[in-house]
Design goal:
Blueprint: H1 2-12, H2 15-21, H3 39-54, E1 62-63, E2 72-73, E3 78-79, H4 93-100, H5 108-112, H6 121-126, H7 131-142, H8 144-164, H9 169-183, H10 188-199, H11 216-222, H12 230-248, H13 254-265
Antiparallel strand pairs: 1-2, 2-3
Helix pairs in contact: 1-3, 1-8, 3-10, 8-9, 8-10, 9-10, 11-12, 12-13
Length: about 270
């Protein structure tokens, strides 16, 4: 699987960008396990993530959704908290900024900002046509390959992190088995990459409602080994953990569920 993901990274980026990203070089496939992805196939994964998060619109690369305490930026809707805001979700935009600075020039004001410089959604949209927003939007538009590469790196590191949280060997084996089962299925790599970006690994202790998470770990745990259609089972388990999240949420999140289910539907093989 490691070789599989590295091949994807190589397809996503031109050689000049690859060299600057300081990513591990692609490795020769081991044990006869070889997955070949064309550049178009790799870019299609990025396009689908952008479609899921922002309907494929440039305007939606820089948004602050109603009912949320933070802006969502880029094709993966990376979270950036304002100063003084502590939310239950893992903040991901600072990691993206660090990643981008390895290969592109980032505006000075972004380099100097420890927190999102808008205190509220109203403040954000009063600034939406400013030079600062235009620079941010342009940066998110021109760095889509790097954003996808970061999401892929996150998935590449996800399995050992998830297994480290499990004390029972049988549970670790089950999660690993389901992970590879999905990865080796048609549409599976897209589904894994999209879900880990969408709802995280499921290992952060604060990403819990009533002690129950909704990330990739919880999804893989919920999968049944005896179901033949792997991607249908992946989608079913995703629906289960997200429906449970809405049921456990301290505030009404039911408005999100229809859109989440539409997204989950793209994981099935048709």
């Amino acid at each position: 699987m490691k070789q599989y993901l590295q091949l994807l990274l190589l397809c996503l980026l031109p050689s000049s960008v690859w060299a600057d990203l300081a990513l591990p070089p692609p490795m020769a496939p081991a044990d006869g396990f070889e997955i070949q992805l064309s550049e178009n196939e790799a870019r299609e994964i990025g396009r689908r993530i952008w479609q899921n998060e922002g309907a494929g619109k440039v305007a939606n690369l820089v948004v602050w959704n109603k009912g949320e305490d933070f802006p969502s930026l880029g094709i993966g809707h990376f979270i950036w908290y304002p100063k003084g805001v502590e939310g239950p979700f893992v903040e991901s935009f600072p990691a993206l900024l660090n990643h981008l600075q390895k290969s592109v020039e980032v505006p000075v004001w972004l380099k100097e900002a420890d927190d999102a410089p808008w205190s509220s959604r109203d403040d954000f949209y009063s600034d939406i046509n400013s030079w600062r927003m235009n620079e941010l939007r342009e940066l998110m538009k021109k760095t889509m390959p790097q954003q996808v590469a970061l999401i892929v790196q996150r998935l590449q590191a996800a399995l050992p992190k998830m297994q480290q949280t499990l004390e029972v060997e049988a549970q670790r084996r089950h999660v690993e088995r389901q992970f590879y089962r999905v990865a080796e299925s048609a549409n599976g790599l897209y589904a894994l990459i999209d879900y880990v970006n969408f709802k995280g690994e499921g290992i952060a202790s604060k990403e819990r409602y009533r002690g129950q998470g909704w990330g990739l770990l919880q999804l893989l745990q919920a999968m049944r080994s005896d179901v033949h259609d792997t991607m249908a089972e992946f989608a079913r388990a995703a629906d289960e953990v997200l429906t449970r999240r809405v049921r456990n949420a301290p505030r009404d999140e039911s408005r999100w569920l229809l859109g989440w289910r539409k997204r989950i539907g793209t994981y099935r093989v048709r």
